[in-house]
Design goal:
Layout lengths: L1 H25 L9 H30 L7 E3 L11 E3 L6 E2 L2 E3 L5 E2 L20 H10 L5
Antiparallel strand pairs: 1-2, 3-4, 4-5
Amino acid sequence: MEQDARLLDRVRDLSKSLGEDLDWLIKNHFADAPRADGLRDLGERLADLGADLLKRADQLDRSVAAQLPADGWIPEAAPPAKGLRVAHYVGRGELRFGLVYLAACGTACYPFYGKDPTARIARHPRCRVCPHLAETSAAYGGGS
């Protein structure tokens, strides 16, 4: 996507120039502190890039969360010890690391069924811990 390519170009540009920028900041021959204008310029570049990276991460998270089942239950990622994988509550996918979601109980899960339009998750045994933790998290302003 063009938006992602532009963001990555900005990260590469920053990476290339950061060493020189820092050298320039340190070479303040008139004081013991770095130059305020240089610090401000670098800070603004970092803040702008950081804000744009966070905005894009939020967009990607929303798009991925839209692919999860509405009820927030998906199977664990690990191969089942016996029988079916246990279903865990991941909510809207707030805790995601790459392709894996962390359930309320901390178990790594994967949305094998996507949005699960045929409710295949219903045949999986449910984690007994997740509902309580999800309920507690929601009560304190977290979770879905």
